[in-house]
Amino acid sequence: MPAARALAHAFETGALASKRAFFLRAEPLALGDLDAEQSSRPDFLKLKRATPRIESGAYELGLILLTKHKEESYANIARGWDLLAPGGRLVCAGANDDGAASLEKQVGKAFGLADTLSKFHSRVFWFDKCERAPPDYWRNLATVHQVGDGSFLSQPGIFSWDHIDDGSALLAKHLPDDLSGNVADFGCGWGYLSREVLRSPAMTHLDLVDAEHRAIEAARANIQDSRASFHWLDLTKEEAPAIYDAIVCNPPFHAGRAAEPGLGQKVIEAAARALKPGGRFYVVANRGLPYEPLLKASFASYATLADNNKFRVSLAVR
Questions:
Q1: Where does 2-141 sit in CATH, by number?
Q2: Which residue, 18, 135, 184, 236, has fewest beta-carbon neighbours within 10 Å?
Q3: Is the pTM of this model over 0.85?
Q4: Fold type of domain 147-317
Q5: Where in the chain is the domain with CATH 3.40.50.150?
Q6: CB of 172 within 8 A of CB of 192?
């Protein structure tokens, strides 16, 4: 990642001194002994020592890799400020293509900047913790809170974090009333589809699975049902928690700035492995993604339930 290289360069050149530090959205970098936080399970598994969330601290130095999601970066900057000791320094690094220059301006207005560095098509900028606190809006983004019409809780860093995704809404309309037994929601997000699935009284258990820890946090807040359990897993590398009678899924396919149908394909393959013979797989995806051959090859039967020229809902039977 260019921003991570730029951050490492700032330390290598002596622009920043090593101190007791935390690192939000951490990547494996040779920056000394850091308390690393990474809520994305695939990236978490690449780190030797990390936590999905740093709850408190009084650090001399904080590092943040900014993401392409402005609200998530605002939230992480607000959290980073809270984790610093008085006089501590917060260092932010982001790619120019992800809007780092605009964020640098907003952070400069909010706190004032000590210095900046431009390298590898990225921006690194930093400021010291003084009496100027983060804007209330940024702080509100740093916690699970009501969004949309107020009927659910969410936070930045989750897919479709502030509204119901159109694809998931279409899938929900075509879920049957007779879901029963052991069911899973692969890529549960903040729990919208799971909430719809739990309307079925014949269900005995639902596993909510997601690779983003923030999604699991929000899903826990939204799903208050004794039949539900929550799992922070990377289904492309880790085994599903159980074998299921049915699985619902709006598979992930975005990484960075490019669509990657291969990621969704791996989740579909994981679903095929995790279903009982005769088990049902309900999936929605952008209709342009090449999932049909995989569904036909991995399942005993396959049918299209809905197609609105943007999304396709499919039922595959193991």
A1: 3.40.50.150
A2: 18
A3: yes
A4: Rossmann fold (3.40.50)
A5: 2-141, 147-317
A6: yes
